[in-house]
Write a structure and sequence with these properties.
Layout (H helix, E strand, L loop, with lengths): L4 E6 L2 H12 L15 E4 L4 E6 L4 H6 L5 E5 H7 L3 E6 L5 E8 L10 E5 L2 H9 L5 E5 L6 H4 L5 E6 L3 H5 L2 E10 L1 E6 H6 L1 H16 L1
Parallel strand pairs: 1-3, 1-4, 7-8, 7-9
Antiparallel strand pairs: 2-3, 4-11, 5-11, 6-9, 6-10
């Protein structure tokens, strides 16, 4: 008997959208939508078990094998580079990884550029490709405040609509890469559950295109 596929879903709006795709693909689990304090939800008939985790933890659960597959933003995959398979772009959670700063700012390319970000690895890699020396200032919230208060010259962050930037006198200066949610899989588990995971992948691909 085939064992159930363990799926790590990110908490929040992204997870809700991801589950809708899974359900559309035939992997529904009505219990997941009920008001309760359970941590795992399963539908034996559909052969799937879900659990909600913090978005930044999805890749860890998958990489370490606690989950067979999961839904993770491209930003998380770029930042942490987990050793997982990236199977498909789910086309949800679309935004952009950008460099932003005061609208009138231009990089003089002299001295060290101060960059505030939640994504230090992405920032370092981006500027290393330009041979630009930077000072990374790691922040966890209210990134937009950094250039406003003079803590940094620019920020590297996710931009969805740009409204928050505009309201604070900031704008996108450079786009690093588009971001969206991806279906990822544990490499070892994919070897012995490939048929099941591929069936899931095909179902999700149809749901995305519907």
């Amino acid at each position: 008997m085939k064992r159930m596929i363990n799926v790590a879903l990110p908490k929040g709006r992204l997870g809700d959208k991801a589950y809708a795709l899974f359900a559309q693909a035939g992997y529904e689990c009505p219990e997941l939508l009920e008001e309760n304090r359970k941590l795992t939800f399963e539908n034996e008939r559909a052969g799937v078990r879900y659990f909600w985790v913090k978005p930044s933890d999805v890749a860890i659960y998958v990489e370490r094998g606690a989950a067979d597959v999961g839904v993770a933003g491209r930003d998380i995959l770029l930042e942490y580079a987990p050793d997982v398979y990236e199977l498909i772009d789910l086309g949800i959670g679309k935004c952009r990884m950008c460099v932003a700063g005061p609208s009138a700012f231009t990089d003089p390319h002299t001295g060290v550029l101060r960059v505030a970000t939640k994504f230090p690895n992405i920032a370092r890699k981006y500027y290393a490709a330009q041979s630009r020396e930077i000072d990374v200032i790691r922040l966890n919230g209210s990134i937009e405040l950094a250039p406003i208060l003079g803590l940094s010259d620019v920020i590297v962050d996710i931009v969805e609509t740009g409204k928050t930037l505009a309201e604070n006198g900031l704008s996108v200066l450079e786009e690093i890469e588009p971001v969206s949610a991806r279906l990822i899989a544990n490499k070892a588990h994919y070897k012995f559950m490939g048929e099941q995971i591929d069936a899931l992948r095909r179902g999700l691909s149809k749901a995305v295109q519907a």
